[in-house]
């Protein structure tokens, strides 16, 4: 009897000190998998839960580095071996639950099958205007009612490449945390300062900060290359379908345009944003926006 009790005690001590096994999901009917699919498909679910889906090694790593809180991290060992996974996502950097999933479950969740075998849900935490941290001479990109997630993602990539100070989304028609936005941004949604606001509040905020506004419009009377973006500046762009609202056209200090010689009267909004942002950076000597170029 004493020996049996001793054996049970030894087993208890051993098991109680073993690391917990990862949870494994192989069923598409699992409640968590259903929730993640809803988060991918429904902006209403993302707003209600303040969660988003992030897929890919690069994208999840950028989210973690930017301080975004993961809710859960799903890993497919058949696509990313355990040793590589733990090297990429060490336990001291990942405080959320780590769940192993089968290839079938991964393929159901993943938009890109080559994303490295990891998918996560994370807290969505857009900034307010008051939360933006600006340098002395900021360069800000303001987007009013941009409609397509792919365009928004491409603009985020441009903003990251240029190193601009912040992006403000006014009265957005697309969800910032739409999976297509995150994918198109290549994870730069996490490397940029992005704030959500209304047009009225943004106009007032820019005026209070003494930031000059340059509204991009086909009716602009100043070529973008003639504008002076050296001082604190905000480049304002509207949707491809409707352009900027009258509020912005009236409030802007300068209306600028990109001269065109072709038969089509407008460029894709992400292309236009790249042209304008990099002209501003050229004028600034491609330096950090906290200092004026010499």
How is the secondary structure organized here?
Blueprint: H1 2-16, E1 23-25, H2 31-41, H3 43-49, E2 51-55, H4 57-65, E3 70-75, H5 82-88, E4 97-101, H6 103-109, E5 118-123, E6 139-144, H7 149-162, E7 166-170, H8 179-184, E8 194-197, H9 199-209, E9 212-216, E10 222-223, E11 233-237, H10 246-251, E12 254-257, H11 269-283
Parallel strand pairs: 1-4, 3-4, 6-7, 6-11, 7-8, 9-11, 9-12, 10-12
Antiparallel strand pairs: 2-5, 3-5
How would you characterize this protein structure?
With 294 residues, the protein is of the alpha/beta class. It has 2 domains: 2-123, Ribosomal protein L30/S12 (60s Ribosomal Protein L30, Chain: A, 2-Layer Sandwich), CATH 3.30.1330.30; 129-283, Alpha/beta knot, CATH 3.40.1280. 37% of the residues lie in helices and 19% in strands. It has 11 helices and 12 strands. The protein has helices at residues 2-16, 31-41, 43-49, 57-65, 82-88, 103-109, 149-162, 179-184, 199-209, 246-251, 269-283; strands at residues 23-25, 51-55, 70-75, 97-101, 118-123, 139-144, 166-170, 194-197, 212-216, 222-223, 233-237, 254-257. The chain has a 7-stranded parallel sheet with strand order 8-7-6-11-9-12-10, with helices on both faces. A 5-stranded mixed sheet has the order 1-4-3-5-2, with helices on both faces. Helix 2 packs across helix 3 (43-49) and helix 7 runs parallel beside helix 11 (269-283). The radius of gyration is 24 Å and the shape is elongated. The termini are far apart. The model is unreliable at 1-21 (pLDDT under 50).
């Amino acid at each position: 009897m004493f020996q049996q009790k001793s054996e049970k005690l030894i087993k208890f001590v051993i098991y109680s000190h073993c690391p917990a096994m990862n949870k494994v999901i192989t069923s598409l009917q699992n409640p968590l998998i259903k929730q993640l699919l809803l988060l991918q498909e429904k902006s209403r679910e993302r707003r209600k839960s303040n969660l988003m889906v992030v897929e890919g090694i690069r994208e999840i790593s950028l989210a973690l580095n930017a301080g975004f809180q993961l809710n859960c991290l799903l890993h497919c060992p058949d696509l990313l071996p355990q040793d590589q996974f733990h090297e990429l996502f060490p336990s001291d950097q990942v405080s959320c639950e780590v769940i192993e999933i089968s290839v079938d479950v991964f393929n159901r969740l993943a938009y890109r099958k080559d994303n490295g075998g990891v998918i996560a849900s994370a807290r969505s935490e857009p900034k307010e205007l008051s939360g933006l941290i600006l340098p002395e001479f900021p360069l800000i990109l303001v987007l009013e009612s941009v409609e397509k997630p792919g365009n928004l993602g491409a603009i985020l990539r441009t903003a990251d490449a240029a190193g601009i100070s912040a992006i403000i989304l006014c009265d957005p028609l697309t969800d910032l945390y739409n999976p297509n936005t995150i994918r198109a941004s290549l994870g730069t949604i996490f490397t940029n300062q992005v704030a959500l606001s209304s047009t009225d509040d943004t106009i007032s905020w820019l005026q209070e900060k003494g930031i000059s506004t340059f509204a991009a419009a086909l009716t602009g009377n100043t070529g973008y290359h003639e504008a002076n973006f050296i001082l604190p500046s905000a480049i304002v762009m509207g949707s491809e379908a409707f352009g900027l609202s009258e509020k912005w056209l009236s409030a802007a200090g300068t209306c600028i345009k990109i001269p065109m010689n072709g038969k089509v009267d407008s460029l894709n909004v992400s292309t236009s944003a790249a042209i304008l942002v990099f002209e501003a950076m050229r004028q600034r000597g491609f330096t950090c926006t906290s200092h004026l170029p010499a």
